[in-house]
Amino acid sequence: MTAFGIDLGTTKSCIAYVDDAGHPVVIRTAPSVVYFERKDSVVVGAAAKNAALLAPDLAVQLVKRQMGRKDADYAFHGTRYTPESISALILKELAAAAERRLGHPVRDVVITVPAYFGVAERQATRQAAEIAGLNALDVLAEPVAAALSGPPAEGVRHLLVYDLGGGTFDISVIRVDGVDASVICTDGDHRLGGADWDARIRAYLLEAFAEQHPGLVPTADEVFMQDLWIKAEQLKEELSSAPTRDKDLRFAGAVARVELTRRRLEELTADLLDRTMKITQETVERARRHGVTEFDEVVLVGGMTRLPAVAARLEELLGRTPRHHEPDLAVVRGAAMFALARQSRQADRLGITAAEAESMRSRRVTTVIPRGFGVRVLDHNDPLARTDPMRARTYVIHLLPAGTRLPADSGPVTFTTVLDDQPVIEVEVWEQSGRDSSEELADNTLIGRGKLRDLPPELPKGTPIHITFFMGETGLLTVHAVEPVSGRELRFDLQIGGLDQAAVDKAKTAVARHDISS
After folding, report:
1. CA–CA gap between residue 57 and residue 308 (Å, rounded)
2. Fewer CB under 10 Å: which end of the chain, C or N?
3. H helix intervals, 2-45
4. Which of 336, 257, 443 is nearest to 22 (CA)?
């Protein structure tokens, strides 16, 4: 059975497979929009995007930005949906398109995610596949997929992959050694992408219309606003290759011709591009600390990188000319190649050499933890630690810092009890919340806890406790705490993020009832 690669994007999604000649073929590309036409009947793709302009309260867009969040849900026609369920509907439509094209069921898939996605978001993506009735062979970082989409090169090469898509931004440093790829460091912003450029253009067009026709207020007119959305996207795309463009806006018999130049667009969105450059600079500095001082290539991925300002700013920052690498399709093609590698028996049926098949099968990908994981501890420098430790300052020590390669093992880290005769030790597990590592509780999120009970009596304050974190490639975090005097131990697993199995099963049943059209 053929394995497929899926780019589950913020604004667009696509599916691809590797044909009998060993070439990745893109089957379908569609906007990542779901329109809830009626109960148990949804539209996915371009038709949904058009419907969303007229009835935005019945549509979901940019759902990728909500993946892994337990406080995000949607209600339509009396039914509640999670981001995982919405994503599952998109996945089902892509799979159905592939089935219609190839004539056989789609089951095994590799789905790409932003490299900076944390464990919660990756687990939510796996569960979206399960809800859609698919088997996720792996969840692959988008820049790694882009790096894998080209033919293997000899020797060790370091790539800086700048991925600016419709809704998210990713920057990653990747070491490629033949067919193997490993992420050195990664960062990004899951709330920054082409949709933000579109919003600035729409605001500019509205302001220009108001200046030419100050007595008219068109924002309540659905047809006008639909046209505004379309024209904003068109302007963004056209200004990638032209220095200036103009559009006519019509409302209530009035017409406003609005010109937008590429230079003006760059001024309107300078702060957005600045944000990507700041993150890029920080990532480059982090790579230097890992021993990567030069890049063999700077690769541009994502439709937004067609804007000339992107390449110009990167060249100014890095002193190297970036290379466009199939901005819209590199990720899904790389995912298809990796899916083939994961389902290695397929390579034997391709019309390629045994050496090429073995090369595909042997591809290895190593990724890193985007955000750190640690435990809450007492600040012994706080004077209250001696007199009233329950009121003293506490902070987070990251046993698995951001950037640690997976699978990861912290090894035993020694902490101590804070009270004499302490009968119980509570181990709290915290995850780094933001892009920057911080020991402050406010900059981390409590994700789980366990208690080491029945400690022997008369243990003095300062008795050592050994805590070990182990995280596998699927995001399962195992916590092991040992009190060495008595041998008492605590072990528990945390699957970071995602729904519990009962919720997944319920969502799978609900999604299966839906009639999905495109």
Report:
1. 35
2. N
3. none
4. 336
Residue 496 is predicted with a pLDDT of 60
- Measure the CA angle with vertex 474, ends 364 and 93; round to 5°: 90
Q: How does strand 24-31 pair with strand 12-18? A: antiparallel
Closest C-alpha to 280, from 380, 114, 152, 162? 162
Helix (H/G/I), strand (E/B), else coil: 33: coil
Q: Which of 180, 146, 213, 98 is nearest to 518 (CA)?
A: 98
| Sequence-ordered list of residues with C-beta below 8 angstroms from that of 243, at least 6 positions apart, any chain | 261, 262, 263
DSSP string, 446-499: EEEEEEE--PPTTPPTT-EEEEEEEE-TT-EEEEEEEETTTTEEEEEEEE-SS-
What's the one-letter identity of residue 183? V
> What's the one-letter identity of residue 367?
T
Structure-model confidence comparison of residues 118 and 261, the more confident one? 261
**Over residues 10-28, mean pLDDT:** 91
Question: What pLDDT score does 385 carry?
Answer: 86
Secondary structure class of 24 (helix, strand, coil): strand
Rounded-to-integer distance, Cα 491 and Cα 475, Å: 16
Structural domains in the chain, sorted by start: 1-149+326-367 (3.30.420.40), 194-268 (3.90.640.10), 373-472+475-496 (2.60.34.10)
- For the four alpha carbons of 351, 352, 357 and 359, in that order, the dihedral sign comes to negative
Contact 261, 243 (CB under 8 A): yes
| Residue 177: Cβ-neighbour burial (10 angstroms; 0-12, 13-18, 19+) | middle
* Overall residue count recorded for the chain in this entry: 518
Nearest to 199 by CA among 268, 143, 264: 268
List the structure tokens of 409.
């093992």
Tokens, residue 435? 């892009």
End-to-end CA distance of the chain: 25
In angstroms and rounded to an integer, the radius of gyration of the C-alpha atoms of the chain is 25
Query: Higher confidence at residue 195 or residue 497?
Result: 195
Residue 349: per-residue pLDDT: 46
Q: Which amino acid is at 483?
A: E
| Residue pointed to by tokens 């026609």 | 77
Angle between helices 222-238 and 194-212 (to 10 degrees): 120
